[in-house]
Design goal:
four-stranded antiparallel β-sheet; Alpha-Beta Plaits; homodimer; seven-stranded mixed β-sheet; Formiminotransferase-cyclodeaminase, Chain B, domain 1; 2 domains; alpha+beta; 9 helices; 11 strands
């Protein structure tokens, strides 16, 4: 059974009854609620769900419909940039499904939102139909208020739905790989070492592809804090081994590492397979995996 | 949701209709059939199932009942030693359940088989009630034919059920840790090196606890073949690291390793956690694990 995750962001983080309605709506049959958190300053709620693709698409669609009914962007204020009541809804492959298949699902979800809810929909990330729509900040530039003025311009034509903006704004739908938040703590209080390693490994300064990294001092210990944007491109064990190499070159050992939040089992299997020389995650067969199939 | 596995062995490996009836009976609601294999020479069938404890207990009980109806030990011939129609039914903790809790389940299953099917039941392994019943070969000594003569002796008194032997013989029920079959291939055709490493690491010659090991030559490559009887005691990564150390001391590298069959995800998480310094399997949280809960 293929499993996807979705992490829709809604522009409401203050009214408990609206948040509760979103959390309830998204739980269509077969949808598992993994997490939800609301931030009053950002005035925003992030819900994490997983399940079989059809179930997740149905749940997200229902929540998008509730958000469009109950959230009015003309009245919305918050620190976080936003373009719609459902600001963004990424679809993420977890198991037994490819990113390319999630692109197909994003089109299906986007088309349904456009046709049935009459909302403008933009596709982003791996589902983008134009290069300038790959990055979410580019689509969101000018936010809801700017979109009111610009939606009739050719470069703003939605991928699905009408070129008209109502109180629910637009919805950005897409497909992207799973993001792994990963920290490595060094046996040193010298934050400069963590900053240098972070600079050496992050993609933006010529390091490892699909890796974002910063150095911090956390409770007196140097920490390399990372987002791994695509662990198929740069897996966990490559990051660990490279940080270890760079740290040891400066006479510093790795103290420990930590995974923030949930990771797909495949990522863990790949790391174990690497260190045990098992020849890849596909050679690791688990009882639980067999039960899911 | 706790998950256990059971791997009952039945004394029938030839009559397809009996094998089919066992495979059908064991699949009570909630029971997942992971594997089954029959051997005509051994005249024996091994079925692997997993699921929530109550479901697995119900399925195994149903299969034991079918075996008792359809298998007559007075007529059974095969190479493998056996004491009953259902020769042995181990319960194995997979996730969210301890070995001690599986001991409790073994008592429940044993009592039900004894009371409802009127079969003599012996508890073994972690569920044994006497030290001399820990090991399966000790309980099975003399096999079915011997038991006919000895069941009235005090040392043969069943743990549950009557001290009487009918055509279905006795059932041995127990709880044991998951067994991981694990092979490591060395970059050498010298089988003596594999044999020396096997001797150094197996428990029986003073090596690592809960490890059985032998050296083989497989397609021109030296292989250390192991059964890890309790990966809580000696985990996969300890075995790998120790074999690597011993091989390198003789100037030989590890080529690759392989897991035979299924392993619980916990074992894989523990290995990844060790090499990534995550501080133990409990610090690894997966999307799939969250979905199961």
């Amino acid at each position: 059974m293929p499993i996807i995750e979705s992490v829709p962001n809604f522009s409401e983080g203050r009214r408990p009854e609206v948040i509760a309605a979103l959390v309830e709506a998204i739980q269509a049959p077969g949808v598992l609620l993994l997490d939800h958190s609301s931030d009053a300053d950002h005035n925003r709620t992030v819900i994490t769900v997983a399940g079989e693709p059809n179930a997740v698409l149905e749940g997200v669609f229902r929540a998008v419909a509730v958000a469009a009914q109950k959230i009015n962007l003309f009245e919305h204020r918050g620190e976080h940039p936003r373009i719609g009541a459902t600001d963004v809804a990424p679809l993420v492959p977890i198991e037994g499904i490819t990113l390319e298949e999630c692109v197909g699902l994003a089109h299906r979800l986007g088309r349904r939102i456009g046709e049935e809810l009459r909302l403008p929909v933009y596709l982003y990330a791996a589902a983008a139909t134009r290069p300038e729509r790959k990055r979410l900040p580019d689509i969101r530039r000018g936010e809801f208020e700017g979109l009111l003025e610009t939606i009739h311009l050719p470069e703003r034509t939605p991928d699905y739905g009408p070129a008209e903006v109502g109180p629910a704004g637009a919805v950005v739908v897409g497909a992207r790989p799973f993001l792994v938040a990963y920290n490595i703590y060094l046996q040193t209080p010298d934050v400069e070492i963590a900053r240098n390693i972070a600079k050496a490994i992050r993609e933006s300064s010529g390091g490892l592809p699909a890796v974002q990294a910063k150095g911090f001092l956390v409770e007196g210990q140097a920490q390399v804090s990372m987002n791994l944007l695509d662990v198929e491109v740069t897996p966990l064990h490559v990051v660990f081994t490279e940080v270890q190499r760079l740290a040891e070159a400066q006479g510093v050992a790795i103290d420990r590492s930590e995974l923030i939040g949930l990771a797909p089992e495949r990522v863990i299997r790949a790391a174990a397979a690497h260190f045990l020389k098992l020849g890849g995650a596909d050679n690791v067969h688990t009882v639980e995996g067999a039960m899911r199939r």
